[in-house]
Structure formats: structure tokens, C-alpha cells
Design goal:
Helix content: 25-40%
CATH architecture of the largest domain: 2-Layer Sandwich
Largest sheet: 8 strands, mixed
Distance between the termini: 15 Å
Order of helices and strands: EEEEEHEEHHEHHHEEEHHHHHEHHEEH
Length: about 400
């Protein structure tokens, strides 16, 4: 079975094609600046890589270009579009319609209804799914909701201390996100270490970041909350925040409630603290040159990660392994070092030589004597979604 996995942004479309008979990646590609005068397209199939510029009006047209690339007579890996058994989406939020679902009108309406919770994610996914339903009616579409992995979190780690009816009637709770990544890490680290039932702390650190406590492959707590806004500070989102500060800002600045929310979700986080950038690469370079606010942003980020790592050690009753993944987790020696600094009391000892530089592949960075192993594991969210898509198609 061949499955196409789509990762959408408001003006972007990235994809990978998998052959699930042996779980190999056949191709990857992407299109940026959809709907603008010139869109940038690239595709990699085996050793072949091609790039070009052209005008692509919407996501349906982007998928058409993708399928043309995959069925190209000279470099393609498919003889026909009919070989694509389904398209899987790393969708973000549909509230109680969680898990893995074949896309239908009920799901699309629920995602539209909850767009205020995930304004950067739900609208482009809904728009693209509707376009693709019309353009490719014979190809099943499957949404693998990011919240699905966290359905195993017990009440005491999922609920807020709000009126109980808010939880039962309005679904106000920690839904959690980055589910595909944490699911992959929870399974892969067990394979790498050759052990079952591990107590894992998964640190997915990128432009969007979260920490997850995993026991035996199941999520038992996660840092993100009702929305992707909660938890760790992100590149431009504030993370955990006291809502009673909002009226203070409204009175002081004259901003509307909606404007404050927009500022919190677009001008907060590492960007807000540093006043420079939300990208850790920029911040580390600036901090090394003496930029005070860049240094403060990085220290705040590191402290927030340590907060959740420590809390989850207590929650799990000890930890077997801490895993770093995502663009920052895989590439930032500084972040990994400072998150694990002075944690020998908890059995965490990082080897400076193993942790040095930008690592490639799966690397253990803890010392041989460290009671808690520390690993860098590149995530593979797309493979998780491909597996889930195949299973959903098989059930439908």
C-alpha cells in the first residue's frame, strides 16, 4: 500500500510518499508560497532532485503538481495516481473527534468550529481537505489528529481546576499536541534500547515545542494544554500564561481582547523576549556575541523545559530515558546541555564529547555511568501518520 502524507501550512504543502509494504520512503517534496505570484516547488525521488518556480493558486493545485511529479515518466516512482491508496494529514485539533478518522463533513465542521483554538492550523487544513475532496473524490482522505496520542492521559493530569461542567460539557482540558512525534519516540526508543515498559520523557523541541511523559508507550502527561498556546514558550507563542494578565494589558494599551490574543500567539515566545528572532539558531549566535535579550530568551526556554522534565520525573516515579527530538532537540548542543545541566542528583549525566555539535541519526549522549539514558532520536511523524492512514483505510 502506498500512502501520501501531507503536512499543510496556510501557504505551504509538504509531502512524503511511503510504501508501507516495507515502510520505505519513496519520495518527498514541498511547495511554498501557495496562492502567491510565484510558488517554489521541489521534489526528491531517489537520487533525483528537481526545483522550479510556478504559480500555484491553492492546495488542490499543489497536490496535482505533487502527483504529476510522482508519476513523471522519467523520474517518477508511480505508474499511476491510482497507486495512491490514501492521503493522510497530520491534522491538529477537532476536540472530541480525536484519534484517526476518515475525513467527512462532520469532522470538517468540527475543525471549523474550533478554529479559534488552533487558528494557524485548522483553517488551512479544512480548506485543503475540501479542495482535495472535490479534486480527487476517489482517493480516501484520513486525518490523524495530534490529540489522539494523549487520550490515555488520566483525569488528574488532564483536567484544569475549573467548574466540572466546563470539562464534561465544553471539553475544556489539556488536549496535548505533537502526538505523532511523541508516539514515534515512545515506540522507537524501546526498539533502540531493546526494552519494553520504559518510562520516557520525550522533548519535542522545534519552532513549536512540547514535553511528554510516556509510560510503556502511552502518554500520561504533556505540557501543551487546551490549545497549542499552552506549555513551553515557542518561537512566537507565549506558552503558559496567567489569563488574568490579559485585562491588565487591555487597559494599559487599549488593545481589544482579540488583538491581545493575536499578539500572544504571534509576537510572544522567544521572539517576544529577545526582540530579535524566534529561531534558536539566530538566538544562539546573537547570545554568543553578547546580545542580552537573546541570552534571556534561551535561558527562559531552557528553564521551562527543565521544569517539565523534573515534574515528569516525579510523575513517572523515576525515568529510564530522556529523548531530544525536533529541529532544536536534534541540532542544539547548548539546549541539550543546559536542560540536563547539574542533574546528576537525578541520575542524569551527559557526555560532553557525545553531545558535541549537530548530531546525525540516533545518538546516545549520556555517559556510560548515567542511570538515566539520554538520547537524540530524529522523529518521523510522517511514518506514524502513514501507518495510521493505512489502518483507517483498512477499517473503512
Amino acid at each position: 500500500m502506498k500512502v501520501l502524507v501531507a503536512n499543510l501550512g496556510s501557504t505551504s504543502f509538504k509531502y512524503r510518499l511511503f510504501d508501507l509494504s516495507n515502510e520505505t520512503q519513496l519520495a518527498r517534496g514541498g511547495i511554498d508560497r501557495i496562492g502567491q505570484s510565484e510558488s517554489a516547488c521541489f521534489v526528491e525521488i531517489g537520487s533525483h532532485r528537481a526545483e522550479r518556480q510556478q504559480s500555484i493558486p491553492d492546495h488542490a493545485a499543489a497536490v496535482s503538481i505533487c502527483l504529476q511529479q510522482l508519476t513523471d515518466p522519467e523520474h517518477g516512482c508511480l505508474k499511476s495516481v491510482d497507486e495512491v491508496a490514501g492521503i493522510g494529514f497530520k491534522a491538529v485539533f477537532a476536540g472530541s473527534l480525536s484519534g484517526v478518522r476518515v475525513v467527512n463533513e462532520e469532522l470538517l465542521r468540527k475543525m471549523e468550529e474550533l478554529s479559534d483554538i488552533a487558528p494557524a492550523h485548522n483553517p488551512p487544513y479544512v480548506r485543503a481537505m475540501r479542495q482535495l475532496q472535490q479534486a480527487f473524490p476517489k482517493i480516501p482522505l484520513v486525518a490523524a489528529l495530534e490529540t489522539g496520542f494523549h487520550e490515555t492521559i488520566p483525569f488528574e493530569h488532564r483536567a484544569y481546576a475549573v467548574p466540572y461542567e466546563w470539562y464534561t460539557d465544553y471539553d475544556v482540558r489539556r488536549w496535548g499536541f505533537h502526538g505523532a512525534s511523541h508516539r514515534f519516540i515512545g515506540g522507537r526508543i524501546g526498539e533502540v534500547m531493546g526494552r519494553d515498559g520504559l518510562k520516557v520523557i520525550s522533548c519535542h523541541l522545534g519552532g513549536s515545542a512540547s514535553v511528554c511523559a510516556i509510560r510503556g508507550g502511552e502518554s500520561v502527561a504533556t505540557s501543551m494544554g487546551m490549545s497549542p498556546q499552552g506549555g513551553l514558550p515557542n518561537n512566537n507563542r507565549v506558552g503558559d500564561f496567567d489569563p488574568y494578565a490579559i485585562p491588565v494589558i487591555m487597559k494599559a494599551t487599549g488593545m481589544t481582547f482579540e488583538k491581545v490574543l493575536t499578539e500572544m500567539s504571534s509576537k510572544g515566545g522567544l521572539l517576544g523576549i529577545s526582540g530579535l528572532s524566534g529561531d534558536c539558531r539566530d538566538l544562539e549566535e546573537a547570545a554568543a556575541s553578547g546580545h542580552e535579550r537573546a541570552e534571556k530568551a534561551l535561558r527562559l526556554f531552557e528553564a521551562s523545559i527543565r521544569f517539565y522534565v523534573g515534574a515528569y520525573m516525579a510523575l513517572l516515579g523515576g525515568t529510564d530515558v530522556i529523548v531530544f527530538t525536533g529541529g532544536i532537540g536534534e541540532n542544539s548542543e547548548r539546549i541539550r546541555t543546559n536542560v540536563c545541566r547539574n542533574m546528576e542528583w537525578a541520575g542524569v549525566e551527559v557526555c560532553a564529547d557525545r553531545n558535541s555539535g549537530r548530531l546525525k541519526g540516533e545518538v546516545r549522549i549520556s555517559t556510560d555511568n548515567s542511570k538515566v539514558q539520554v538520547w537524540v532520536i530524529p522523529t518521523n511523524e510522517e511514518l506514524v501518520v502513514a501507518r495510521q492512514t493505512a489502518a483507517a483505510i483498512g477499517r473503512s
